[in-house]
Amino acid sequence: MRKIPIYSHPAAGWPALIASTHKLMDYKALTRGGLSVFSSNQPNGGFDCPGCAWPDHKSHKTIDVCENGIKVLASETMSTKADAKFFAQHTVTELQGWNGYELEHSGRLSEPMAYDAAQDRYVPIAWADAYARIAEQLKQLDSPDEALFYTSGRVTNEPAFLYQLFVRCFGTNNLPDCSNMCHEPTSVMLSRQLGIGKATVKLEDFQQAKLIMMFGQNPATNHPRMLEMLAHAHKQGCKIISINPMREQGLAAFRNPQKPTHMAAGQSDAMVDNVIQIQIGGDAALLTGMAKWLTKNNKIDTDFIKQHTSGFEALDQWLRQQSWADVERGSGISKDEIISVARLVAESPQTICTWGMGITQHVQGDDNVAMITNLLLLMGMIGIDGAGASPVRGHSNVQGDRTMGVHERPNQSLLDSLERVFKRPMPQEDGHDVVSGAKALISGKIKAFVSMGGNYAVAAPDMSAIQQALRQTQLNVFVATKLNGTMLYPGTNNLILPCISRTEIILTGQGKQFATTEDSMCQISRSQGNLKPISDSIKSEVQIIADMATQVLGAESAIPWQAMGEDFDIIRDYIAEAIDGFENFNERIRETERGFYLYHPARHRVWNTDSGKAQFEVPKYPVTYVAAQMAQANTQLQSSTDNNSNVTGTISTAAKQKVWQLTSVRSHDQFNTMIFGYQDRYRQTDRRDVLFMHPDEIARLGWQKGDSVMVMRQDSSNQSRTLGPLIITEMDIATNAVATYYPECNDLFDLDTHAPDSHIPAYKSSTVVLERVSDSTLAASA
């Protein structure tokens, strides 16, 4: 086996501090950003860091922010403005040619802008004129369902509640949000199996766990504050297993910047005991093998299963039908290794399963979450301290937005509650999620698109098709802090409405306002910025929504939109009436420094499911699903007689040596679609046009590191999609597996390839063919 170049330093430590400082300087945010670091995740007037949804520590810390968080803060607090002067210097056509890094560094949006087709530029517009245009266009729609209202998970609870109320009063449930693209299988399957689509653990449970199994997760990059808790758990004797096709070097060891001994003496904490490098898409197969061994050898909690669960017999029968050969083929892991992990589960009195989007973003993403939950139920690991289900979400308030009612498929209880509180009918038909909304947009059925944050067209599959569809709408509205690619494909009316960021003061006639957020573990916390807004011409999200609602709904609305825009306490009083768990919201959020924990019935073994018990679920897809997809693609290649090789998608005989499974990843220098820079420190590359591959596989093909390759995929309509050329880069990744960066790869993915119930796009598992591109071909195409 060839040696793989690895990052030899612990995660975090001095490199993280240096990189954070450089990023503050890069954004020209050393003063504003530096001040915000000391208020991030702090009680009594601090704000919730937008960089992730990991819970805040209960004990006070002078600094409670990570490298990733500081990069997000640098982005929000930059002093450069994307104002009228900026847009006067750049046409929209020119900006379409800018990459994600260039757009991200263009500056803070600082005044309302409208697209002028004659100039091909954004030009200033008065707030009143912008609202009038929005109202005019929305009222011209034949149906409210011709509008799509998207939401980013960075929107806090108060504007999220107001937004969904405005949209439903307008008459539609077309409320897609970023959950549809990240953790929707978690929400769908945990709700079905446990009665609530949220984590069953608290932060304190990680201090008591004896086994932590991490599925499809890279916390060193995506939520680095989790590393401290993992390191602490490991020192307490907890075994930690990472299940991931990629061996992430950021999980090897952790140097805690909060510990002087670590920073001065060069100490670090070990974290992961073992890495199980499964085949991409092999999680459900691995979990099936573990559950098969545990049930056959009676290593399960039969008392818990009898008292608290339903559906065990069907699952047990299904497990018996699965052959070990299929389990090994589907997971890429040997029977002996699977059993060794199952033994750890059997011996552990307290087990936490934690997962990220490496579990959810698959065609079989629903099955993946179901099998994790099945495993926990088999062992009775729901409803005891130190154990449970711990999905870790990325956006800081994506869970809170869903709690506040931002959902295209709302529960009837929510609609009934809103009707009771606001004394008006609410739309009853399910609305569009991200996938169906994008399809409706592309087909011309959506005439207006409104976005509260986010970068919809770039984050979704088929991004080029969505971008072009936005050109055909009669109205696009973007409430945001930064310029992004979705804003650059204007329809007849295109408006950018700049908003106050998390780090900035919201000052109204009623004084300073604070908002609230919900983290991945159901903790509700205050969030209050302390910096002067970047411009006097920007408004809070709450005020923008209140203004739009006032203009669009007019005198017929008895809801006090403007009063809520001035006083967030009024919004919280309405939330207390309409949303379960928020009784006496204003009083409770002020009672303690860290807010309060939402009641979680499953944690108390109360099951709000159809059966009244926790529900085992039988997977819908065979454990060999991915392997079968690859075998089918390989058969199709072998039967082809086309020997022509070029860079436009024709696959040559030389390329038929291998079919690969591709996964998308985020670099260490990015947050979702926000590209902070090009340095992926732990993977040791400083460019984004790369394809990660194991060096043994590179050598087997007779290729070399640095070669250029095209990536090709047949989509669900049997159409060829092509990405590249990409540069081959070495990485410790599973056999048959390759990886490349999101969102640059999103045109490889189509909107019809998704999980059946949650509709999550399959960003993390696609069957592809690679073709090496010769130097002469590259030169000719250049």
Secondary structure layout:
Blueprint lengths: L10 E2 H14 L3 H8 L29 H11 L3 E2 L1 H6 L2 H5 L3 H5 L3 E2 L3 E4 L4 E4 L2 H13 L7 E5 L5 H14 L13 H11 L16 E5 L3 H4 L2 H11 L3 E5 L9 E3 L4 H6 L3 E2 L3 E3 L6 H14 L5 H7 E2 L1 H10 L2 H8 L3 H13 L3 E5 L1 H4 L4 H14 L9 E4 L6 H6 L8 H11 L11 H10 L4 E5 L3 H4 L3 H8 L4 E6 L13 E5 L7 E3 L2 E3 L1 E4 L4 E5 L13 H13 L7 H6 L1 H11 L6 H7 L4 E2 L16 E2 L9 H15 L19 E7 L4 E2 L2 E2 L14 E4 L1 H6 L7 E7 L5 E11 L6 E5 L24 E8 L1 H7 L1
Parallel strand pairs: 1-9, 2-3, 6-15, 7-8, 7-13, 8-11, 12-23, 13-14, 15-16, 16-17, 24-30, 27-29
Antiparallel strand pairs: 4-5, 4-17, 9-10, 18-19, 20-21, 21-22, 24-31, 25-26, 28-29, 28-31
Helix pairs in contact: 1-3, 2-3, 7-25, 8-25, 9-19, 13-16, 13-17, 13-19, 22-24
Please explain how this structure is put together:
The protein is α/β, with parallel strands linked by helices and 782 residues long. It has 3 domains: 81-182 and 397-604, 3-Layer(aba) Sandwich (Rossmann fold); 184-391, Dimethylsulfoxide Reductase, domain 2; 625-781, Barwin-like endoglucanases, CATH 2.40.40.20. The chain has 31 helices and 31 strands. A hairpin with a 5-residue loop joins strand 28 and strand 29 (720-730). Helix 1 (13-26) runs parallel beside helix 3 (67-77) and helix 9 (184-194) runs parallel beside helix 19 (365-378). The protein is globular, with a radius of gyration of 25 Å.
